[in-house]
Amino acid sequence: MGEEHGTGGLFKNIDNAYYIGGGTGVADALKLHGQLVQLDHTQDWLSKSWEMKINGFSFENLLSVRGIQEQYSLKAGVNIHELLENGIYAQQILQRAQSNNQQAIETLAETGKTLGMLLFERIETIACGWQNRFKFINANRDHLIPDHDYLGTILERGIIGQRLGSLLQLDLDSRIIWEELENTLSLMISKSENLPDSFKLNFTPNNFNVISSLRDAPVLGAAIDAWNIFLENTNA
């Protein structure tokens, strides 16, 4: 994965971390106990983010930059094709929010809230097991089991990357997304009946959340995975 092997990758020198990247879609990556964990191998206890939904929308609909554009289209009552024709993408929506456009503010506040909820679910599920907080897009998907080999493991870092990370970088001063993200995550952690008190008392979102500067991390990661598979097959 790019965050593990790329220069400046944020999976380096840390044992337990989660990555969420948002571009045209969303991408997850996970490192636990010092090892990269393939999410294809966690499907019985941890889902991929794009499989879950909230308030009728998938997390991909709410956290990808394309999804942010679509959410703004709904709130502003502007056809998505008109936004595309006028070059109004996630970055321009942030600029509108920074200029006090109410629909843009509401859109990006929802982005922050959703991201906070996702990060909390990751923290809780890894440490305590699945708590049935969200529904799945595929109603026939197998239910997640609450037991797994990593119970008790506390995530040390939440990494936000790709264009979603770039958007958060541009929001560092305006804090339209950040405020909702940090408030939601902190509130859910403080109210959790499952997480250990020691973690709840010492948790600070500004120390947990970091922005990745590796825009091509998923591509690099996919290339590394493909190479490793090739080597395995060659040595078979």
TrEMBL record:
InterPro entries with a match to the protein in the record: ATPase_NBD
Identification of the protein by name: Uncharacterized protein
Organism field: marine metagenome
